[in-house]
Design goal:
2 domains, mainly alpha
Length: 186
């Protein structure tokens, strides 16, 4: 047996022994998802703060990195980039309402763009088998993005929280399914 295959088999054996942890984590995610669904405004604010804090932490690492490579030509740009990232993260944390407006608008525009790209790709693949699935996916994504855009700015209060909630529930269900599958293959 090849080394990568042996390593994968070992990982799967270990995962099968811990199937219950996957199920427990999945249940926790589902509960958190429904909890977030019960208060979408709070979930949106939590999402905004999470993004802002991550940006601040990333900025700190980027600034430290800039000083660690200060002999490089790009030292100033690394440091400046970290500073701007920190400023953006701080702005998000200090004014989550404005951040929610901006991020929801960006989400709407990028969702529309993603849907349109899939539509174009599907039309180019029209002769290929299964192209209709790509077309349907692009159409639904573009319509969802348009709905996000038409609901803006009012949906800025709840849309990001809704997406977080749905993601937590889906991820939780996937973990529960994986855990139960691992249990059944023991």
């Amino acid at each position: 047996m090849s080394e990568p295959r042996r390593a994968f088999t070992g990982l799967m054996t270990e995962a099968r022994g811990k199937w219950g942890w996957f199920v427990a984590l999945g249940i926790l995610f589902v509960v958190l998802g429904f909890g977030a669904l019960s208060n979408l405004l709070l979930a949106t604010i939590a999402t905004i703060f999470y993004i802002g804090v991550l940006m601040i932490v990333a900025a700190a690492f980027q600034i430290v990195h800039a000083f660690r490579v200060k002999n490089w030509r790009g030292f100033f740009l690394w440091g400046l980039g970290g500073f701007f990232y920190a400023a953006a993260g701080t702005t998000i944390v200090l004014d989550p309402a404005v951040a929610s407006l901006v991020l929801t608008l960006i989400l709407a525009v990028f969702t529309i763009a993603s849907g349109l790209m899939r539509l174009l790709l599907s039309l180019r693949a029209r002769g290929d088998r299964g192209w209709g699935w790509l077309f349907a996916s692009g159409l639904l994504t573009a319509i969802a993005g348009l709905a996000f855009l038409l609901g803006w700015p009012l949906n800025s209060l709840w849309l990001l929280g809704l997406l977080l909630s749905v993601d937590l529930v889906f991820q939780g269900c996937a973990l529960i399914g994986l855990g139960l599958q691992l249990r059944d293959t023991r």
